[in-house]
Fold:
Amino acid sequence: MRPLAAALLFSLTLAATPGLAAETRCGWLQNPTPGNWWLDDNQGMWVMRSQGDEDGPPGMDIIPDISERDYVATNGYYGYACACMSVETDASEKKITEILSFRQLPLSKCENDAALTTPQ
Structure:
């Protein structure tokens, strides 16, 4: 195949393939019990992992020990923090399907956001 034809075919293939777009989501990152992780932002609860899931979405391993920074313990070693993440989601399932980056924020950032409800 000629280079120009190959390039045209490649670009048409890319245009026809729906791509996933990364989203930045910020809010309360909750880990209330073993194996349960979700993010509550201004659009609701986004599940990352439920007890019984083996690993959760790709990128779960980039979330550090959130208890080492600004954090609220609610159940022994478990609790919540404020965070921003770059993620891919399944909006129909309200599920985070991949975590691309993670940044823990001071609790005050979420506490001062009127669109967020502080976890119990």
Summary: The chain has one domain: 20-106. The longest strand covers residues 78-90. Residues 3-16 form the longest helix (14 residues). Confidence is low (pLDDT under 50) at residues 4-18.
